[in-house]
Amino acid sequence: MRPRRIAHIARWEVSRSAGTVDRKTILVLVAMALVVGVVGVSVVGSGAGLEDDLYRVGVDGRVDGAGSNPYVDVVEASPQFTLVETTAAEFASGDSDADVFTGGPGHLRSDGSTKGDAAHAAFRDAIDRYNHELMDAEVDEDAAYPVRVSVRYQQRDLADPPGSGGDRPDAGGSAGDGSDGSSDGSGGFDDPSFGDDSSGAASAERDDSRLRIPDVGGGSLGESVDAGTPGAISPPFPFQSLVLAFLFVVPMNFVIQAYGSTIMDERIKRRGELLLVAPITSTEIVAGKTLPYLVGVVAIAAVITGVIEGGPLSVLAALPIALLFLAATFVSALLARSFKELTFVTVAISVFLTTYTFVPAIFTDVTPIALISPLTLIVMDLQGETATLGEYLFSTGAFYLGATVLFALGIGIYREEDLFTQKPIPAKVLDALAGRIRGYRHVPLLSILFIPFVFVGQLLAVALLFALPTHLALPVLFVVVSVLEELAKSVHVYAGFARSRFEASLGTAVVVGTLAGAGFFVGEKLTHVVQFVGLPDLEVGLAAFGPALSAEPLVLAVLFVVPLVLHSVTAVISAVGASRGRTQYALAFTAAVLVHTGYNLGVIGLVS
Amino acid sequence: MIEVQDLRKEYGGFVAVEGSSFSVDRGEVFGVIGPNGAGKTTTLKTLAGLIEPTAGTAVVADRPAGHPDMQRTLGFLPEESPLYEEMTAHSYLEFFADLYDVPGDVASERITEALDRLDLEHRDRRIGNMSKGMTRKVAIARALVNDPEVLIFDEPASGLDPLTTNYIIDFTRELSDEGKTIVFSAHNLYHVESICDRVVIMNEGEIVARGTLDEIREAHGGAEYHVYATVDAGGAIRENGHFRHVVDDMDAVDRVRASVEADDGRVTDIQTHTPSLEDIFLDVAGEARA
């Protein structure tokens, strides 16, 4: 690839695309920027000002100077409230327009209306916040927080019946600590000088190690339980950081629409044909056309980072998400047969990737599964946490590799024969795969390259299934894992036979099947990286990614050799079917999945 | 300059080109003709390196088709060449000149010259606002920005008005006079006949006739003689009070003359008719279909 060429095409793409942007599009873009800006600023700051002066707080007594009502400072500190000087009698008779009334410390009353009740609750929260700020500002930290509570999350034993977890000494200890902290702080609820239970919990010193697994496996998340039990400690939900992290994904959904259209334009109007005749490679064309959109998304991410005061990690985490968005859109634009079909596909991409990145990030402070999404890194960054290189690679590796493979497959069909013909999508997918097979050596290579997709699929399955009871989640996961892995080992072999890259004979099928299985085995070993972040600590994680490596040489040897044999055998089964046509491939593939699932069940049974 | 050997292109189960072989000399104008679906465009796109042959080889300017060095020596004008409508003619041509590594000053001079020769006005108008003929001229100019040795023109005047068509045909002839090697395809066989030195006729993916125009006439229907007489000497067609006898050599003419005179008639006229390329094409294509 020649950078000058790519830069030239990129410049051309920018100037050309700029000429196609009409006023309506500009208005949509401006509106989008405004939405992003308002959401960002309002979440970062104390709000967009929509709730300013929402409630009126009636105060009886002095409002300034010594001996003044202590709630006056709370009112002045919160823009949500307006001070109204009144008396208890006026408030009681309804002559005052105050929503709540305070006559002094410990005295706070609602006017009985719905708004009054809301104002009452909001004012109590404001008092808590005010107290908290006072505590934080205290020079003598021990005086402000004389009692320190350590909270440690413990993974619930899913095999135990509900309620039994509380019997464990460690769980009981945590619960006791937590409730102690609550009771300590709940005494002066209405007194500005004391904290309540939530402030007590918030002030509890958090364990240094991140990504601990709390008791959420049994579905206690969001569940209302009695105080004093471990479930009373709500799992941390990084709402603010999550909303801000989501801002990074929003622009990507718009940019891929423009990107998909420009690729589609080249195809539908056959405008890209002349570029293919020029002395430049398809890779340079694609890189040049993609670069402006990638730079645009990263620039937007950088601006958002600046506005919401994030760090470089946020931009670095947004990069692989943007790449995968673009790569998936690129391939889709090559496969779609019309703009209508492209719209459908890009919406599907938006929904899938947004879900895939956003949902795990919700559990940033809860479980290591959250790290399957780079958005989790952004949430961590916004919470002031740092990520290790291992965590960054784990979180983004599948995205980088996935994007690379998708671009490589797409570039394989970025040629006259595929760009300008209206083949069915499956046929083009086979073309893309077959285009990458120019000899036996490419068979294991493709198996390895598909590992990121298997990885993402398995991670997604784990993320979707981990909250279910184990006896339901595991069987489903075993089948999903088998299907994904067998697909990764056989789909390119089928493409090779379907496009006459291989001679359709039993001998050839055995050879390419063995190569595909061995290649996949090598790639699969890379997934052991999950052990560095502790994912197999979860039972479903263990099912998806296998047991942790043993130090025993014999066990180690068995763990290496047996999977190699399994992958080769099942890949050969599929390859033999693939060499004989589509129907035989489907049948053989099903057989391979059954063998694989049986093997997984057997191994997990032995290991456990 | 161009060597094609046993070219075969298959799409799925459909064979678009089968066993085509031909060569084009330097400076020659070479025509490729045939009915729709004959494999002409596939052949030309293979030469341009756009399509990878299933079997066989195509070498252009001593390089395999599709090789970057070969692409630098090639100017390709596809049958349909939708341009980037949001660009002006000048910026569009500059963009391609840069892709071919043409230095800026040379490119500017070359673009101006090409547009002057093609008599293209409104060069700074967006291509989307140009007429079809003007767009085609821009496409031709694009094929010339790298000053190619070999030009492949696929239906260069397709869908244009007669005036623009003649202009483009004349321009192609000028390029030929300058020594460019041109492979030319057109449905209008008159155009092919008027500028091509040699042609191949393709039908259903195969070359069914080849050579210079005279050679093809010779092989697929040379001159024929129309002998008009006052009496029918056998097999004649009555026309305007005379009998027209169609024969294909001078001996046959002598035999008709003798026969007419034996019946007390006389020969009133003898005309020589040379078949056009279109006659031959229809004849060959018809034979192939039969």
Short description:
The complex is a heterodimer of chains A (608) and B (290). Chain A is mainly alpha-helical and 608 residues long. Chain A is built from 24 helices and 6 strands.
Inertia-based shape of chain A: globular
Q: What is the tally of beta strands of chain B?
A: 14
The CATH class of the largest domain in chain B turns out to be: Alpha Beta
Encode the helix/strand succession of chain B as letters. Answer: EEEHEEHEHHHEHEHEEHEEEHEH
Proportion of residues in β-strands of chain A: under 5%
Based on helices, strands and strand pairing, what is the structural class of chain B? Answer: alpha/beta
Largest sheet of chain B: 6 strands, mixed
Strand order of the largest sheet of chain A: 2-1-3-4
Quaternary form: heterodimer
Output the number of helix runs of chain B. Answer: 10
**What is the CATH homology-level superfamily of the largest domain in chain B?**
P-loop containing nucleotide triphosphate hydrolases
SS strand fraction of chain B: 25-35%
Domain unit count of chain B: 2
* DSSP summary, beta strand count of chain A: 6
Low-confidence runs of at least 5 consecutive residues of chain B: none
Model regions low in confidence, pLDDT < 50 over at least 5 residues of chain A:
158-233
